[in-house]
UniProtKB/TrEMBL annotation:
Residue ranges with Polar residues bias: 541-553
Protein name stated in the entry: DUF4139 domain-containing protein
Signal sequence, start to end: 1-25
InterPro entries documented for this protein: CHP02231 (IPR011935)
Composition bias, Pro residues: 118-136
Organism (species): Polyangium jinanense
Region (Disordered): 90-146, 249-277, 291-322, 527-553
């Protein structure tokens, strides 16, 4: 026996639960639409409208409908008539309420005014003055607030089906989910029930009607076709040819030939490397300063013109095509239509032709089906008294589902920042959309809790929290870092690399229960990032800006979940920097790289290696030179101090020590001077080599064109 047997209401009659004992609020009034045609079908949508269908045999020349005044516009805008053998409707007439002209008088009111007492004379002039008249109350409308719409027919006997739309309370879903035991495959099963609650406020009892509930909201608006509209028209008159105002003229000033466009802005300053050493641009400037013919070449980048303008094209929307439309929905009446092009006014009446079939009375519900929505058609007729609520069973079937945990901090639940929720998780394996509504969760016949189901399309998975689990505790920690270097592009001799800004979010889960805890962590996604190597089964929900990351924590144990996100950005770097070296070598070692670009990069990087070697030696020698110069200066000061010492001629030991120090300082100063001379000569040679290699690296990089980086693996 199904686990739903605890909730069944009986046999077939149990599928329809009438809440007749709960009358809906509202004053007594007649039905919104009344007619001799019996109500046969009602389709209720989720946007506050319902489609009504009436049918019957008519042997008169017209059919009358009593329609509430505020419903006439919707009635006329959605009226659809079907008759076997073709439509026999000639016209639909209805009364129009006109605004009374202020200048027009009312005979009855004039009679009442004539019987009033004459006004008293004004005391100062002796002339009668009319007393102030109180405002007249608006006239009350006679009748029950309904007007008659008449359909004029041809012939004598008619089998009519008439459909129209009227305001109706939306139907609301309600769900039941009974969690079952997990199968041997590890997947869980659950039984799902979906109920629909309908309210009848139409003013009449629905007896033996076919009821359909549509899980969708087609576009529906309030129509005012019953209101007369007279748009204002312009007044045309002949008042002569006098110019009422002096026209304003326009002056064009003479201009010279258009000036050339300004040069683009200089690229980002990269005069210093990340290590604080020389940049290639700085070395190039030094190299150019040492050449007499430096003016013959232009390396400033000013020769680059502006980017070409994107071409603009005008586009015009094509007129809608007119064609034939045919539809046949679920046993309804077939409907075909042909939209014809307008023709000139005929000089005589055209010959009679077979009239095109009017719209299908099932069209509204069928359109909802074509739009991807779901319609629930009850297989039996129902009775729904006026001012009552009805609960009908829409589906009952087994779905994949289980009860697990979800860590999803919610500002409305303070403890949810430290403890996860207990959730019911199931897959909508039905053929239709499940609308938003409350759900009650049961397990083994026991009530576990309630939650809300968001709109769930077929195949989607719902995760519904229904309780808070304090046996599990979660702490969160987040760190940031900048990593990796990928060659992004080479343009005008400038290198651009792509780096990743990395976010690490660590969730520490402690399980204090006696069972293993399968937990989903709802991780709030950083905008513009991507998940890096997420755990298997992770659901990255781009629409909600979050990801559901699965994690299982053993009983009485602890587990750490590390969620890594990365955001890529591009920056310009100097060719001599370590980041540029890492990015270029990674590109050359990638088998997906452009072979031609790799060959050119190898030449440039060989020259860069020689330049880097010369620079390293120069930097080392310059550091040694600075040290020797400081040491030599100190030695000179020491020698000057010794010259000022006056030794006692009788103190032989003191005189010998002074002489020994003088000799030592002199020898050291001589060695330092000799080494400084060698360093100066080598630095001169290295300066020439650095300048030459700098120009070579610059020229080789300028000949390379790389437009985009390789895709991230």
């Amino acid at each position: 026996m199904s686990r739903f047997s605890h909730f069944r209401l009986g046999a077939v009659g149990g599928f329809l639960l009438l809440a007749s004992a709960l009358p809906l609020a509202g004053c007594a009034r007649g039905p919104d639409v009344a007619s001799g045609l019996a109500l046969r079908r009602v389709v209720i949508y989720r946007n506050g409208v319902g489609y009504y269908e009436r049918a019957g045999h008519v042997d008169e020349a017209e059919v009358a409908f009593k329609v509430r005044t505020e419903r006439i516009g919707d009635f006329l805008a959605t009226l659809a008539v079907m008759e076997q053998g073709g439509s026999s409707v000639r016209s639909a007439s209805f009364p129009v309420e006109l605004e009374k002209d202020k200048d027009e008088g009312d005979g009855e009111e004039e009679d009442e005014d004539s019987e009033a007492e004459p006004p008293a004379p004004e005391p100062r002039y002796g002339m009668p003055m009319p007393p102030p008249q109180p405002p007249k109350p608006p006239k009350k409308k006679k009748g029950d607030g309904r007007e008659t719409v008449r359909l004029t027919l041809d012939g004598e006997e008619h089998d009519l089906v008439v459909g129209y739309v009227a305001e109706t309370p939306v139907w609301r879903p309600s769900y039941r989910l009974v969690i079952g035991k997990a199968e041997s495959t590890g997947t869980g099963k659950a039984d799902l029930q979906a109920w629909g609650i309908v309210q009848n406020q139409s003013g009449e009892d629905w007896k033996g009607v076919r009821l359909s509930l549509v899980a969708g909201a087609p576009l529906a608006f309030q129509a005012t076709l019953d209101k007369p509209v007279v748009p204002p028209r312009p007044v045309v008159t002949d008042e002569g040819e006098v110019i009422a105002s002096v026209p304003v003229g326009e002056t064009s000033l003479p201009t010279m030939a258009s000036a050339p466009p300004p040069p683009p802005p200089m690229p980002m300053d990269a005069s210093r490397t990340e290590e604080g050493g020389e940049s290639l641009d700085g070395l190039l400037a030094e190299a150019e300063a040492t050449k007499d013919e430096a003016a013959d070449g232009d390396f400033s980048g000013e020769g680059r013109g502006p980017a070409p303008r994107a071409s603009t094209k005008r586009s015009s929307a094509a007129p809608a095509k007119r064609g034939r439309v045919a539809a046949n929905y679920g046993g309804g009446y077939p409907a075909t239509g042909q939209a014809a092009a307008p023709a000139p006014y005929p000089t005589e009446m055209p010959p009679p032709v077979t009239p095109s079939n009017p719209r299908n009375v099932n069209a509204l519900a069928a359109v909802a089906m074509e739009g991807g929505t779901t319609r629930y058609d009850l297989p039996f007729a129902v009775d729904i008294p006026n001012k009552s609520a009805t609960m009908v069973l829409l589906l009952a079937q087994s779905v994949p589902g289980e009860a697990i945990f979800l860590f999803s901090p919610d500002g409305g639940v303070r403890d949810s920042f430290s403890h996860p929720f207990r959730v019911a998780r199931f897959t909508n394996n039905t053929k239709g959309i499940l609308e938003k509504g409350p759900i009650a969760v049961f397990d083994g016949g026991a009530f576990l809790g309630q939650g809300m189901v968001d709109p769930l399309p077929p195949g989607a998975v719902a995760t519904v929290p229904f309780a808070l689990e304090r046996g599990l505790a979660v702490t969160t920690d987040r760190t940031e870092d900048e990593l990796s270097a990928r060659l992004a592009k080479i343009e005008a001799g400038q290198l651009y690399i792509e780096r990743d800004w990395v976010y690490h979010t660590k969730y520490t889960i402690k399980n204090g229960t006696d069972l293993d805890a399968k937990t989903l962590v709802k991780h709030a996604r950083m905008p513009g990032t991507r998940l890096e190597n997420p755990p298997k089964g992770t659901e990255d929900n781009v629409g909600t800006g979050s990801a559901l990351v699965p994690q299982t924590t053993p009983k009485r144990g602890m587990n750490v979940l590390d969620v890594e996100e990365r955001r890529s950005f591009t920056r310009q770097v100097d060719a001599l920097s370590q980041l540029a070296d890492d990015a270029v070598k990674a590109y050359m070692n990638d088998p997906r790289a452009d072979k031609i670009v790799v060959a050119e990069l190898k030449k440039a990087w060989d020259a860069r290696g020689k330049l880097r070697t010369a620079l390293d030696e120069r930097n080392k020698l310059q550091s040694e030179q600075n040290t020797l110069e400081r040491e030599s200066e100190q030695l000179r000061r020491n020698l000057k101090a010794i010259e000022k010492i006056k030794d006692d001629p009788r103190d032989t030991v003191s005189r010998q020590n002074t002489e020994k120090m003088r000799q030592d300082f002199t020898d050291r100063l001589g060695k330092a001077s000799t080494r400084l001379g060698e360093i100066t000569k080598r630095l001169t040679i290295l300066e020439i080599e650095v300048n030459e290699q700098s120009v070579r690296v610059r020229d080789l990089l300028a000949s390379i064109k790389l437009e985009k980086a390789l895709p991230t693996p």
